[in-house]
Each structure stands twice: as structure tokens, then as C-alpha cells.
Automatic annotation (TrEMBL):
Residues 11-236 form the Beta-lactamase class A catalytic domain. It holds the Pfam family Beta-lactamase2. It comes from the Bacteria. It comes from Nocardioides terrae. This is Beta-lactamase class A.
């Protein structure tokens, strides 16, 4: 292991797809998950589709109000907090497209519409089957204010984020076709200023970002031409947003140059 010189608020997990761990620092530190929760939500939809319990090609009515995780409460989302105006402008969207928008655009409304279809128990099953620890949890939807006030939250560790990506790479978290499609969607990620920026141009990267004020994460499944494929998860809390984004890309660059 390399001493990266990072503080306790930066977590790094780097492992080859054969399971070889190349870097592990603060990997069990709980971070607010932000949009990383969209990955297990998406996988839950594909798993239900695999079992014939959900039609990914069915159209879903678009609405901004949802039932809260707190029984009897509801909440309404805000378009200003979203990265995906097209979903807000639509009356209906196919479920498969909602999944793609939640991942590649980090669409909040799209993610909540998918979560409404799959339910929290199915998301919890994804985490369990990936081998995630109890430190990682999806306790509420995005912008669920009543649930947040009740203490329900979404948390993730760098190790567990890596386990989710490894399950996609190994084609074990859903059918091979489903895992391949999720990975392909992640290669179309619009937010590429973290890990992808630190890797050589042209490197195949399937990544998912997450951020709110004071929290910035990037997790990536990387398939280079000149070395084994690997997963890299970098989660940060308590840093200035610009510093966090710079640190993520620089850590990716440093690890690429020194971890093999």
C-alpha cells in the first residue's frame, strides 16, 4: 500500500477485477452517499426485470411528489436541484430510459421514479448480494425531507462502492446482459471531471459520481488496454468542492502511475 497522505475524510479503494487489493485507506468510513445510491437503485430495476417482475420498457408517469419513507408523509422534489430537465418536461418516460438518466445524467427525479417502482427492500437486497457491509444503507429517496428529519439517511463506504462495481464487472449482481447494459450506460457518464480526468485519454471508464455541498465522490470500473481491469472508489467529505474534485482526479492520476 502507498501512503497517499490523505486525511480521514478521504476514502480510497482500488482493486483489480481478480480481487487483488492495491489500495485501501479509510475504506470503512461512512460518507453521505449522495447520488451513489442511484447505482443500487438501477441494479434493483434490472434484477426485477431479469425475474420477470418489472418491465423496463414500460412507460412511467412523471410526477414530482412521492410517498416518504416516513409512513403517512409525502414530499415534493425541486427541479432546480436536478441535472436532468428532460425528465421534468415529460409526461411519461420508459423505465429503462429513467434508469439510464439516473446514472449517466445523475437525474434525481428519474432515480426516485425508479425507486418508486422497485421499493427499498429490493435495493437492500442488491447491497446484501454485493457483499456490502451494514455501514452502507439506502434509507430514503432523494429530497425526502420528512425522512431526513426523522434521521433516515443514505450512507456508503468506499469498500462497499467497490463491491457494487465489482459485482457489475463480474456479471454476478444481475444477469450478464443486465450488468453489461448498466456498465455501458455508465460509460456514457456526463460527469467526467473526477476519476476519468486523472486517467490517460481514451481509457475505458464506466463511472458514477455523487455530490452535495461538502461531499464529492466518484467510483469507476476501468478497463485499460495495458493492465488488468480494476475498480476505483474515491469518496470525500468535508472538503471544498473544487478541492475535492481536484483531489479525486489527482489521486486517480497518482494511483495509475504508482499502484502497479
Amino acid at each position: 500500500m502507498i501512503d497517499l497522505g490523505v486525511g480521514p475524510l478521504v476514502s480510497v479503494w482500488l482493486a483489480d477485477l481478480d480481487g487483488t487489493v492495491r489500495q485501501a485507506q479509510n475504506v470503512n468510513h461512512q460518507h453521505y452517499a449522495a447520488s451513489l445510491v442511484k447505482l443500487p437503485i438501477a441494479l434493483a430495476a434490472y434484477r426485477m426485470h431479469d425475474r420477470g417482475e418489472l418491465d423496463l420498457d414500460a412507460v412511467v408517469p412523471v410526477h414530482p411528489d412521492f410517498a416518504s419513507a416516513v409512513e403517512g408523509e409525502r414530499f415534493e422534489m425541486h427541479e432546480a436541484y436536478d441535472q436532468d430537465p428532460e425528465t421534468w418536461a415529460a409526461d411519461t418516460v420508459p423505465l429503462r430510459e429513467l434508469v439510464a438518466r439516473s446514472l449517466a445524467r445523475s437525474g434525481n427525479l428519474a432515480a426516485n421514479l425508479v425507486l418508486e417502482q422497485v421499493g427499498p427492500a429490493e435495493v437492500a437486497a442488491v447491497l446484501a448480494d454485493a457483499g456490502c457491509s451494514p455501514m452502507t444503507e439506502v434509507g430514503r429517496a432523494i429530497e425526502d425531507a420528512p425522512a431526513e428529519e426523522a434521521g433516515l439517511t443514505n450512507l456508503m463506504t468506499a469498500h462497499d462502492a467497490g463491491r457494487l462495481l465489482a459485482g457489475i464487472a463480474e456479471r454476478t449482481l444481475a444477469s450478464a446482459a443486465a450488468c453489461q447494459e448498466v456498465e455501458q450506460v455508465l460509460t456514457r457518464q456526463r460527469h467526467r471531471d473526477g476519476i476519468p480526468l486523472g486517467l490517460p485519454e481514451g481509457t475505458a471508464v464506466a463511472n458514477k459520481t455523487g455530490w452535495v455541498d461538502g461531499v464529492r465522490h466518484d467510483i469507476a470500473l476501468v478497463r485499460p488496454d495495458d493492465r488488468p481491469g480494476f475498480v476505483l472508489a474515491i469518496l470525500t467529505s468535508g472538503l471544498d468542492d473544487d478541492e475535492a474534485e481536484w483531489r479525486i482526479s489527482e489521486l486517480a492520476r497518482f494511483l495509475w502511475q504508482s499502484a502497479w
